[in-house]
Amino acid sequence: MEPIHESKSLSISCPICRSKKIIKLPTSIVDKSKQLTTISIPKGKICKHHFQVFIDKNFIIRGFQKVDYELKEIQSTKQKLQNHKEMTLKEIYDEFWEYISDDNEAFREFISKDIRRKKNLNDDEIHNPYGTDFIPHVCKNLE
Fold it and tell me: Would you tell me how many other CB atoms lie within 10 Å of the CB of residue 140?
């Protein structure tokens, strides 16, 4: 993609509400087009409407078209980061604890207190810190 150096100012009016605004348009975009260049003007650029402008090689506006339906815009990463609330270290740990290694220094305090991380030494054995059995005595006799 070539860097855009030159631009031309163009006064564009919304075909729906007639709001006007001057926008800069790169000349290279129009130069590459064979006849008309279609420019999509998103909501908020000039007014609350989304529409298209058709410009010829001489930067003369040849027509407008309103957009009847607009697909939901995918948020950019930058927008997502701006909308994302800051999380505390505890909130991050609670959200991603499965993916944090046991020796992670930043989360050491949470790791040491997290009962979800207590691993059984033997999968057949249930450890109880109080020394009493979890499994009723009747079930132990079943074989």
Answer: 9
Q: How confident is the model at residue 121 (pLDDT cuts 50, 70, 90)?
A: very low
Domain extent at residue 113:
85-120
| DSSP-assigned beta bridge partners for residue 139 | none
Q: Which of 30, 72, 31, 32 is nearest to 50 (CA)?
A: 72
Mean pLDDT in the chain?
A: 78
Question: How many domains are contained in the chain?
Answer: 2
The reply to whether 133 falls in a domain is: no
Amino acid at 138: V
Q: How far apart are CA 56 and CA 31, in angstroms?
A: 9
**H-only helix segments in 8-136:** 27-32, 77-83, 89-96, 108-113
CA pair distance 22, 12, nearest whole angstrom: 6
